[in-house]
Specification:
156 residues; alpha+beta; Nuclear Transport Factor 2, Chain: A; 6-stranded mixed beta sheet; 6 strands
Length: 156
């Protein structure tokens, strides 16, 4: 197994244990993480995982298809959890891509179908508006607010 594939596996093993510190330890100090909800740099990426691992009480994770070479890597993962804002069950299906520097992850992009996620997480409003930028921007703003609040309560 390539060293970078082992690094990705360590990242997801940490996630399965909800060990946000182990996850953040796989990231380069100049990490850039993005997905349809977050766009984070540096320590904020690790803080997001800390928030999700801490607050995701019934979070279950499965990962497969880890591949990597000297420059880039990928994985597929699925997260099952209850969306806390609505109490609705979600199965989020995600494809991740990675770039590496100095033996660590410097770029991490998670891609998932936001409309599929919003239908599960929000019910009828997600079904009706999940395709729209308006709802996605509202979710992004709420997620950024939640992360800021979490950071204020959990200083590094």
């Amino acid at each position: 197994m390539h060293d970078h594939a082992a690094l990705i596996q360590r990242f997801y093993e940490g996630f399965c244990r909800r060990d946000w510190s182990a996850m953040a330890g796989c990231y380069h100090r100049e990490i850039h993480f993005s997905d349809p909800v977050f766009d984070l740099h540096g320590p904020d990426a690790g803080m997001m995982w800390r928030m999700l691992c801490t607050n995701g009480r019934d979070l279950r994770l499965e990962y497969t298809g880890i591949q990597a070479d000297d420059r880039q890597g990928s994985a597929h993962w699925e997260a099952s959890y209850t969306f806390s804002a609505t109490g609705r069950k979600v199965l989020n299906i995600i494809d991740a891509s990675f770039e590496f520097r100095d033996g660590l992850i410097v770029r991490h992009v998670d891609q998932f179908d936001f409309w599929a996620w919003s239908r599960q997480a929000l019910g009828a409003p997600g079904w009706a508006l999940g395709w729209s930028g308006l709802l996605q921007n509202k979710i992004k703003a709420k997620a950024a607010f939640n992360l800021a609040q979490f950071k204020a309560k959990n200083p590094s």
